[in-house]
Amino acid sequence: MPSLDGTQRQQLVDEGYLVVEDVLDPRDHIEPVMAEYGVILGGLAESLYAEGAIASTYEDLPFADRLIRVCLESGRTYGQHFDCSLPQRGVRQTTPIHVGPAVFGLLTHPYLLDLVESVVGPEIYSNPVQHVRMKLPARAVAPEQANVLVAKVPWHQDNGVILPEADDATILTVWIALTDATLENGCLQLIPGSHRAGLQTHCAAGGTVAIPERMLSVGDAHPLPMRAGSALLMHQRTVHSSLDNVTENEVRISFDLRYQPVGQATGRPAFPGFDARSATRPATVLRDPVAWAQSWYDARERLAAAQDPTYNRWRADSPVCA
Fold first, then answer.
1. What is d(CA 84, CA 226) in angstroms, rounded to the nearest whole number?
2. Which of 255, 245, 5 is nearest to 115 (CA)?
3. Taking the mean position of all CA atoms in its chain, how far away is CA 117?
4. Residue 2: what pLDDT?
5. In this structure, are residues 260 and 170 in contact, taking their beta carbons and an 8 Å threshold?
6. What are phi and psi of 256, to 5 degrees?
7. Is 131 helix (H, G, I), strand (E, B) or coil?
8. At 26, is the secondary structure helix, strand, or coil?
9. Degrees (nearest 5) of the Cα angle 268, 270, 273?
10. Which of 37, 102, 178, 206 is most buried (most C-beta within 10 Å)?
């Protein structure tokens, strides 16, 4: 995968985003990740069937159909079981997280790191604010089960969900479509050039934070349908959200990753990042997926034994939020 050219880099600077099509091959690069997710879903289905929550394990169904059926019958969603990060609060020793070798292989893939290097330079750190999102059709998500891992994501800036210590860091969002992202199944939308306005006030919104729509020029929003394997590069202060999944039988699956220069604050110090590429200190680069997974298990143990850390800088009584 070639590095970004001058025109592409300039669009990222001017507009706050850039779509690069066909970065990863769906068969060679994405199928191994989906195979891991298939194993997780199989284990969930067997467990739910054993407890009588579903009528069958539905092992003959394709992944999306099986996940939808399991969620509909059990009345639950399982985004955290697939996620490659921990929740911001309420972490327990048993909190699910999936940090498998295929996931590690994708987030450290040379094609992705080549793109990242074009923006942040050759010393690349993998920021631990990362997620796998399995956006379900609205019919499969009970209102009390809705969250940003499985449902619509409100308007926000990625800079707004981390601590102020990282405000001056150069954190690049790399959003990867693992399945086709369409207008119907809930692709991202963003406001071009919104990164130039600085950090906006975010308000509490359904377990996360969001920028009130009345503070934004949402009429200027630009939806971004993308083929599986394509990547969206985005400035950390670009305002964006996602559309609803209004399909009946599609699950929109994506990776939401962050990278930055080595040595800068991540904005979430309780979570483990790592050196993903280094021209000057190659020995520091993490290449062992088992060690990566263990760093998350260790973090889970620490967080389960401590009070919830605070990641929200925003005051609930802000006039903007009234």
1. 22
2. 5
3. 20
4. 66
5. yes
6. -125, 95
7. strand
8. helix
9. 70
10. 178
Higher-scoring residue by pLDDT: 310, 44: 44
Closest C-alpha to 156, from 214, 219, 220, 200: 200
CA distance 299 to 276: 19
Pull the structure tokens for residue 1.
């995968």
Q: What is the pLDDT of residue 180?
A: 98
| CA–CA distances in Å: residue 185 to residues 143, 252, 273, 293 | 18, 6, 31, 31
The two structure tokens encoding residue 190 = 């963003």
Position 146 confidence tier, pLDDT thresholds 50, 70, 90: confident
Q: At what angle do helices 6-15 and 110-120 cross, to 10 degrees?
A: 70
Who's near 62: CB < 8 A, 6+ residues apart? none
Report the candidate in 203, 208, 201 with the shortest Cα–Cα distance to residue 152: 208
Fill in the amino acid letter for 315: R
Range of weakest confidence among 30-34, 73-77, 202-206, 237-241: 202-206
Quickly state the pLDDT bin for 311 (edges 50, 70, 90). Answer: confident
Contacts of 292 (CB under 8 A, 6+ apart): 99, 104, 274, 286
Q: For residues 148 and 141, give the distance between their C-alpha atoms in angstroms, rounded to a whole number.
A: 11
Q: What is the pTM of this model?
A: 0.95
Question: Mean pLDDT, to the nearest integer, of 34-61?
Answer: 98
Q: Which of 319, 315, 313 is nearest to 215 (CA)?
A: 319
More confident residue, 88 or 47: 47
